Amino acid sequence: IGTPVTGTLADKEDDVETSCGFRYRDAVYSLTLASRSDVTISVDAGSTFVNAPLRRTCDSSVEELRCSSGAPVRMRVRDVAPGTYALVVESSRPAGFTVTATTSPPSTPVAVTGNDN
Length: 117
Hints:
Blueprint: E1 5-8, E2 25-33, E3 37-44, E4 50-55, E5 64-70, E6 73-80, E7 83-91, E8 96-104
Antiparallel strand pairs: 1-8, 2-7, 3-6, 3-8, 4-5, 4-7
C-alpha cells in the first residue's frame, strides 16, 4: 500500500480468467488491508490497454469486487473489508507496468431522496 510496484507481462502466460478481459497473459499481486478502507488502484502501462480486476481470491472471477480496463487503469473500490485480496493485471501485449494502491478512510454511501428527475 502506497509504494509503486513495477512488473512486466513479457514472461507471463494466461492463468487467470477475468470478467472484464479475455484470455491474455496476466500477473497477480496481493493486497492486504488491516482495516476497512476505500482502495484506489492505478495500473499504468503507458499506452498499452490493460484489464485489472480486484478480487477476494485469485482463482475466482465470481469474487471480483471491481474489474476495470484502460490505458491507464484507475479505479476506486469503496468500503473494502480487512483481509487479503488479489489484483490481476492482464494485457494482450507483453508490456511493463506500474501498480500503485492507496487507501483512505472508508466512505459511507448516503441515500439521496427528492431528486427522482
